[in-house]
Amino acid sequence: VLIAIGRDACTRNIGLQTIGVKINEKNGKIPVNDEEQTNVPYVYAIGDILDGKLELTPVAIQAGRLLAQRLYGGSSRKCDYINVPTTVFTPLEYGSCGFPEEKAIEEYGKQNLEVYHSLFWPLEWTVPGRDNNTCYAKIICNKQDNNRVIGLHVLGPNAGEVTQGFAAAIKCGLTKELLDETIGIHPTCAEVFTTLDITKSSGQDITQKGC
After folding, report:
1. What is the mean pLDDT of the chain?
2. Which of 169, 170, 192, 208 is exposed most, by the fewest CB atoms within 10 A?
3. Residue 3 is assigned to a structural domain of this protein
4. Which pLDDT value is given to residue 32?
5. Is position 43 within any domain?
């Protein structure tokens, strides 16, 4: 049995109401602007306590570092809460970076997006003949911005390792053309992202015959 209960924001009894810091009454979390500043200008919040942000330790560490650099080091860099690589470490891992498809549609409009996807079969699964076409890869591209990759999703072995590598490329402005120009390492799971050619809108079959 897998129970995902999340985390509780313990903000109601630490005196925030005394200085006027607003919290989301439903979940106790704190709304902030893009510089982690609350409604009270001299109060900042970072990490899991933020309303609508990712509950991930590396995100909190990065946000804290950047906040300190802005407050005391003259920096202007802000934390990127969109292009965050993350993985669900279930027996078949799921990794993602950037927008989910639903959020991308909300942000950019369905007509401005192209989604490429494919099922795939890891080489090590071919010997025991295990579960062909169980793994899945998808990228979401913004057609209005040179087909820039704004979302990457992978379900398969070592998805965390795959996602971490592609996350750096996405931060550098990865496009579909650059992926197509990248030579894949055969036979790896990550190679599938260099050969994606079927769009979701086409409705074509995405099953694979082999690794």
Report:
1. 93
2. 208
3. no
4. 97
5. yes
Is the pLDDT at 79 greater than 90? The verdict is: yes
Question: Of 200, 148, 154, 153, whose CA–CA distance to 179 is shortest?
Answer: 148
* Last residue within a domain, chosen from 52, 73, 94: 73
Residue 78 in any domain: the answer is: no
Distance between CA atoms of 86 and 160, rounded to whole angstroms? 7
* Number of domains the chain contains: 2
Q: 46 with 58: CB under 8 angstroms? A: no
Domain that holds residue 61: 16-73
Out of 69, 107, 186, 207, pick the active-site residue.
186
Alpha carbon of residue 25 to chain centroid: 27
Distance (Å, rounded) from C-alpha 116 to C-alpha 142? 11
186 is catalytic: yes
Q: Which residues of 130-163 are buried (b: 16+ CB within 10 A; e: fewer)?
A: eebeebbbbbbbbeeeebbbbbbbbbbbbbbebb
CB 156 within 8 A of CB 90: no
Task: Tell me what percent of the chain is helix, strand and coil, each rounded to the nearest 5.
Answer: 30, 20, 50
pLDDT bracket for residue 88 (50, 70, 90)? very high
**Is the pLDDT assigned to residue 84 strictly greater than 80?**
yes
Does pLDDT of 199 surpass 70?
A: yes
Instruction: Tell me if residue 188 falls in helix, strand or coil.
Output: coil
Q: What span, in angstroms and rounded, lies between the C-alpha atoms of 176 and 191?
A: 14
